[in-house]
Structure formats: structure tokens, C-alpha cells
Write a structure and sequence with these properties.
Blueprint (H helix, E strand, L loop, with lengths): L1 H67 L1 H9 L2 H9 L7 H7 L4 H16 L3 H8 L7 H17 L3 H11 L7 H16 L2 H14 L1 H6 L3 H10 L2
Helix pairs in contact: 2-3, 3-5, 4-5, 5-6, 5-7, 6-7, 7-8, 8-9, 9-10, 10-12
């Protein structure tokens, strides 16, 4: 009998606590309902503004930028000095990569324009400008991003900054491109050799053998593997 009374008492206490909690919630809501409604409406307004911005402004800008970048890419692929300069600066009828990157900053195409501008400057031998634009390129397109990291590594290697060159080559080597990735791994192996880190050099060469066997044979990497193994302590 005592146990039944105790259980009943505890149950009543729990019910009372739940009722008190609900009462407190209702009192809080009644007291601050104007503030709560204001916050909810404010959040909804922000969400609707973002949706409207994306639909009516950003999509339009993306479409404009995508159309604008076609001609500069054509000039870029021609590869001669005059065409490369035109790809950067444009002409009387078409914007170049520089204007597209500046005028359409929040678009994906502007990001791509930064990448191509960096490559164009590299081909023109203007390495500081190349580095400036390549480092602006954000990771929105994986294939281009890994190639971009490799290009930045090349620029730092040319400057004699081995630490930064290795850092960017390591990022680029995480890609899966069957052409660029094994080349980057080879460059990375060579950088490690220069630093006397034969273990990491060996790892880079063996990764080419494991993941890109056809390129491994074409690039005659076996000789570098043997040399690295001979120097690992």
C-alpha cells in the first residue's frame, strides 16, 4: 500500500512539474509574443530576400558572365602573345578575363576568369601577376582547382620557395586526373629529393605506379623508384 501511495505521489509531482513548465512557456510567449513574431518575420524576410537575389540577380549575372567568357577562352587557346593579351584585356566588343573577374565577382564564371587570367599571365612570363590571379581561384570546380594548385607550385618553384612549392604540389597531387596528377606527383618527388627526403620521394613515385600505371611506364618512373630506394635510410 505504501509503495502504491509513493508511486502515486511521484506521478502527481511529475504531472505538476509538466503543467508548471507548460504554464511558464505560455506566460513567456504571451509576454514576448511581439518580439517572437518579429524575429520569425525577420528570418522569413531574409530567406525570401536571398531566394529573390539568387533567382532574379545572381542567375542573370551568371548567364551574362558565361556568355562573356566564351571569346576570351578562344583567344587564350590560340596561344600567341597577341591573343593572350587580348584574352586578358578584351577588345572593343568583348570583355577579357580581367574585366569579367572584376565585373562579375560573385559568379562562378568570375572565379574561372581568375584561373584563366593567371594561366595567360604565366604564358606571357608575368609571374607575379600570374600568382596574384591563380591564388584568387576558389575550389568550386575540382578539376581546374587541382590544376591551379600545380601551376601555383610551379611559380613558387621558379621563385626558389621550395616550402610553398611543395605545399601546393601536395594539394594538386590529391587530384585524380590521369595526366596532370602523375606529373605533379613526379614534380613532388623531385622536390623531396632536393630536400633529401628520400622516403617521401619514394612514396610519390610509388603512388604513380599504384594509381597511374600507364603513365608510370610512359614516364620511366622505375629508375627514380630504384634511386629513391637506394637512398632511403
Amino acid at each position: 500500500m505504501a509503495n502504491t501511495e509513493t508511486l502515486g505521489s511521484k506521478k502527481n509531482e511529475q504531472v505538476q512539474e509538466n503543467e508548471n513548465f507548460v504554464t511558464k512557456i505560455l506566460l513567456f510567449f504571451n509576454k514576448y509574443q511581439n518580439v517572437i513574431y518579429g524575429v520569425v518575420i525577420g528570418v522569413l524576410v531574409v530567406i525570401l530576400a536571398i531566394l529573390a537575389f539568387n533567382r532574379f540577380y545572381l542567375q542573370k549575372k551568371n548567364a551574362e558572365a558565361s556568355a562573356q567568357i566564351v571569346q576570351p577562352i578562344k583567344w587564350f587557346t590560340q596561344g600567341d602573345t597577341a591573343s593572350l593579351k587580348k584574352s586578358l584585356e578584351g577588345d572593343d566588343e568583348n570583355d577579357g578575363f580581367l574585366d569579367i573577374a572584376s565585373s562579375y565577382k560573385i559568379t562562378k564564371t568570375a572565379n574561372t576568369a581568375n584561373y584563366y587570367a593567371g594561366l595567360a599571365y604565366m604564358k606571357l612570363g608575368q609571374k607575379d601577376e600570374a600568382l596574384e590571379y591563380l591564388t584568387k581561384f576558389k575550389k568550386k570546380e575540382d578539376v581546374l582547382w587541382y590544376a591551379c594548385q600545380a601551376a601555383i607550385g610551379d611559380l613558387y618553384d621558379d621563385q626558389g620557395d621550395e616550402g610553398k612549392a611543395i605545399s601546393y604540389y601536395e594539394k594538386a597531387a590529391k587530384g585524380k586526373d590521369p595526366f596532370f596528377t602523375p606529373i605533379t606527383l613526379f614534380k613532388l618527388g623531385q622536390m623531396y629529393e632536393r630536400k633529401g627526403d628520400w622516403k617521401k620521394a619514394l612514396d610519390s613515385y610509388e603512388k604513380i605506379e599504384k594509381d597511374f600505371y600507364n603513365e608510370y611506364n610512359k614516364m620511366s618512373i622505375a629508375q627514380y623508384v630504384e634511386r629513391a630506394k637506394a637512398n632511403v635510410k
